[in-house]
Amino acid sequence: MYKKSNRKKGLWPVLIVCAILLLFAAGCSSDTKSTDFLSGPETNNSGFERTTEGQPSGEVLSGQLKVHFLDVGQADSILVQLPNNQNMLIDAGDNDDGDTIVDYLTGAGVEKIDYLVGTHPHADHIGGMDTVIKNFTIGRVYMPRVTTTTKTFEDVLAAIEYKGLNINTAKAGLKIIDDGNLQALILAPLGTEYEEMNNYSAVIKVTWGEVSFLFTGDAEEQSEREMLASGVSLQANVLKVGHHGSHSSTSAAFLQSVEPQYAVICVGAGNDYGHPHRETMARLQGVNVFRTDLDGTVVFVTDGREINVTTGKNKPGAPGQTGEPGAAAEPIKSGAVAPNNERVYVDDGGRGLIKGNINSKGEKIYHMPDSPYYDSVKPERWFKTEKEALAAGFRPVKG
């Protein structure tokens, strides 16, 4: 059974449901090479196969895994360039992001998207997907078994049908890739009916050698609890923080199980939702956090053992700019004066040192490194210049 939202009267919603039924039915045909291992050998009580991914193997690994968290504002789009020279795209931004994503992927040398994942049918995740489908050769498409009657969703279905593609159902237990040291597993959704569309989100764990990435879409606490109860390993070096940093995701128990070294929040500057919420940022203390609103496009490169990170804020390679995707800029020294006479406050890694905090009254206040309250406040955001903080709606601390 499909969960439907945004219902409309008349025949059109029925036709949409019928169309997606056909697409999903075709996607489950015997010619698909993706593996559902819920009924496979050596499984635990939740149906997940016991694996040893992420453990040192002693094998010599060949190739790099590159993961690009694109800066597409208050939306998600993640390019995963696999060491076997295949490409995976997880989500495709909002409706206005399609051309930006196409340009970025083209600049990264992508000609074919072997695995295209729409984590769930919200516009800020699949809005640009129809444009992507029209501009690239597509291998397999994965989406959760849920429908909606929005025009955005209809456009994606139309593009899929136009290209003669099928939809593979994204559900817990599906192996997208199972190739020795390279694994891509779908960990959620585990259920079939949810009140909240976000909990249908396809959660994917990609592992190369000893390094794992966990991509969570907009999965909220209910989905997180189900994953924890399933017994599957959630540990990952890099976590894509759920739902743009909302307090409804990234629960303490889930975060404790993942134990990430790095976390990435895909979020738009000055968004209307207050993302990322301060509760989430507080839970992420001790984790190296990157944010697309502050850092631009964030690119991780790993050989299966070591991890390197570059950011693209105001650097060549950020979406809509020229240059090599993920290219690093020259480091900025703290206290230096930028060409526009702005004084810059950054650490040795080039990350901002000005703390943005929301107080108990909901006021947005920023604290300079020499502020008497600097060490006692918890940052919701970091800024490199006072102008940047003011533009985000923060005011200087009084006194």
Automatic annotation (TrEMBL):
<feature type="region of interest" description="Disordered">
    <location>
        <begin position="34"/>
        <end position="57"/>
    </location>
</feature>
<dbReference type="Pfam" id="PF00753">
    <property type="entry name" value="Lactamase_B"/>
</dbReference>
<feature type="signal peptide">
    <location>
        <begin position="1"/>
        <end position="25"/>
    </location>
</feature>
<dbReference type="InterPro" id="IPR052159">
    <property type="entry name" value="Competence_DNA_uptake"/>
</dbReference>
<dbReference type="InterPro" id="IPR036866">
    <property type="entry name" value="RibonucZ/Hydroxyglut_hydro"/>
</dbReference>
<dbReference type="InterPro" id="IPR001279">
    <property type="entry name" value="Metallo-B-lactamas"/>
</dbReference>
<feature type="compositionally biased region" description="Polar residues">
    <location>
        <begin position="34"/>
        <end position="55"/>
    </location>
</feature>
<feature type="domain" description="Metallo-beta-lactamase">
    <location>
        <begin position="74"/>
        <end position="269"/>
    </location>
</feature>
<feature type="region of interest" description="Disordered">
    <location>
        <begin position="311"/>
        <end position="332"/>
    </location>
</feature>
<protein>
    <submittedName>
        <fullName>Competence protein ComEC</fullName>
    </submittedName>
</protein>
<keyword id="KW-0732">Signal</keyword>
<dbReference type="InterPro" id="IPR035681">
    <property type="entry name" value="ComA-like_MBL"/>
</dbReference>
